[in-house]
Amino acid sequence: MAGTAIIAPMPFERLPFDAETHLADVQMFQQEAFGAIYLIDDDRKAIVETGTSWDANRILEAVRSFGLRPADIDALVVSHIHLDHAGGAGFLLPEMPRAVHPRGLKHLVDPTKLVASAREALGPEEADVFGTMRAIQPDRLVPVNEGDRLDLGKHSLVFFDSPGHAPHELTILDERNRCLYTGDAAGLYFPGDEILMPVTPAPAFDLEKNLETFRRLLALNPRALLFSHYGPHTQPKAAIEAMMAAYPAWARVVRDKLTSIGEEGVLRELYDMSCRAAKRYPRDFLERRIRVSITGLATYHERMEHAAHTG
Fold first, then answer.
1. Residue 44, C-beta contacts closer than 8 angstroms, at least 6 positions apart
2. Cis ω for the linkage preceding 230 (within 30 of 0)
3. pTM confidence score
């Protein structure tokens, strides 16, 4: 089981370009440098992303090792409500104040449908790794909308609707350091191997909306992209432009070849396109990420075909 391995606690470490912003690696899915949790140590203190339900205790340990009590955290921010971003929220909130999200709010209050949908999309084995969610009382949730700000002191976080990966996806710009928390809106970044990989999960991935989100992110001219998976990328323009090419390329491979060469053939082709140089990250781990996206792109194409025939 994903939650039974003994993993050494990972402390928050300061980002080199901001004295108040810190990152902890919770070793999500038992993989180093995949699950990033960010702490903004300002007048008001915020944590960005909550990981899976399996990660909550490691986040609490990291907060304490930083010299804070969990009750010192004033805001708990999630980019979207998928299990690897918001799954930890309900397990952290008994010791921390508020979480935020707009359209996904109802699923944090009652996660039953969300957890069932994730299990169907991921399959039982992968769903086990992603964990579960715990219901959150409505009075512990603060909805946010496009352009809303969360003032922390020196730092002010601005929220932007960023659909494509999911309809409830947000990106969050820190106006002080001009860094952009991307959630999954800009895909996955595997540092060290310097791999940039699309992430296109079922059931609601939308290619055109994701491409429009990329254009919006470029227009923000961020100093760095703070990936939830994983860490800061300090060449944001190059990263976004690479993703703007990779997402349609992956979509074409799935559309044109899934029927003829099957999932395994598509998996090999997408792996070669994106991950051939991988050394830090195990092949099996990367392939599991790709499989999720193949399913999501196949679902997207089916939805587009159905809309074309019924429209």
1. 74, 75, 151, 152, 153
2. yes
3. 0.91
